[in-house]
Amino acid sequence: MLLSILTSLAFACQAPVAPTLVVEGGDGVTSINGVTVSSEFGPIIGEEKAVLTSPPNVPAPINRNHPTKLIVDLEVLEFVAPIADGVDYTFWTFGGTVPGSFIRTRVGDVVEFNLHNNPSSKMPHNIDLHAVTGPGGGAAASFTAPGHTSQFSFQVTNPGLYVYHCATAPVGMHIANGMYGLILVEPAKGMSPVDKEYYIMQGDFYTEGAYGEAGLQPFSMQKALQEIPDYVLFNGSVGAMVGDKAITAKVGESVRLYVGNGGPNLVSSFHVIGEIFDNLYVEGGSLVNHNVQTTLVPAGGSAIAEFEVEVPGTFIIVDHSIFRTFNKGALGMLKVTGPDDLLVYSGKQDDRIYQPEGGAVQEIPAAEGAKTPSSRTMEERMTLGERSYKVNCLACHQANGEGIKGAFPPLAKSDYLMEDTKRAIDVMHKGLSGKITVNGVEYNGVMPKVNMSDDEIASVLTYIRNSWGNEGGKVTLNEVLEAKSAH
Length: 487
Ligand SMILES: [Cu+2]
Hints:
alpha+beta; six-stranded mixed sheet; 28 strands; binds copper (II) ion; 487 residues; 17% helix; single chain; disordered N terminus
């Protein structure tokens, strides 16, 4: 059904063949269909084939001081590839990568664009370049069936960093499958020289299965319509810029990031943790802001961020809509090597226990006094206890009861907890500080006294003594009251 609609569209959109552009060598005379034309950017001299690069790489800066005829060959490829460990997705791509190949031009260049659609493709595709002045950004002129090539030409008239994307119906689906990339139009004087340039582009992905669900995951139109992505990614997959694949720089170097957002839905709050953008080309245009922490990159928009790296370390690249980073994949890394600068950044200088009101154990403010039924079933205690745990304990002891190494002891399989119910009740009533040993590991922290009713304490202890593999049976209200009166 879908395919037949697209196929009929293919015939409806068949554009007439573009006029022939001839650039005379050397003297810069240009003609279209034999008629000489002039350019406000000076003579268009010679022709060259554009060098295209895969993310995170960027083609070398342009050294020409004149526009040229620039020939771009970009091939559409559809294929299955990992979107995360153990999860496959059917990507549609410009040049075999998500995002698509980076295209670098100079203002005034006349780009002869050849869009090739590989014969193995199942879909027709086209391209809308935001750097194009003309209907659809080239979409109608570039509509290309599988196994065909479309050619059209355009002059890049406005310097800036522009998104390109597929605009074949259903447009959202083509973009969601990875059909976007960046085209840079350098100003006549060129970009200022920097030591490192990188290409980063964000995109949101919608799969039938939830984040991380293994196997080949089909595109979910439902989730795309509701704008609830399972994945939000830099450069097309979870971990595309992490570990060995992190981008790199050396202390003292200047770094320029060409940042894009393909969407299709989300806007990005682009941020590099531990860096400040010295120069920020707002929305990829000519306005340069300075000293920026986070920049908003719209869907179908861009930004150019420049900064120097002063100290070594791993700098995490995020969408500061932060659940996307830690739960949906939008996490990249910039690894900087070189000597420390302890004036710029000292590292941790000290760690001591903070007790604002002296040595006494602190209290967590009381919740509203709950009523105290004399007996509850095991099931009730577990339900109430779980709720109570989430509110009062989870922040330190963690959802899985494993605690945090070196700071908060585990409750899961804790010998300290399981050995002695009365002692555990005391911990709730009085808090706990000083050296303790849990499963052979020493802790020396402060657990605040919890302000919970005795009934709540019975429930939360029942819950922690019967979760995560613990088997301790019910803790009753009577036990809690007895332990209290023994104080
Ligand atoms: Cu497409």
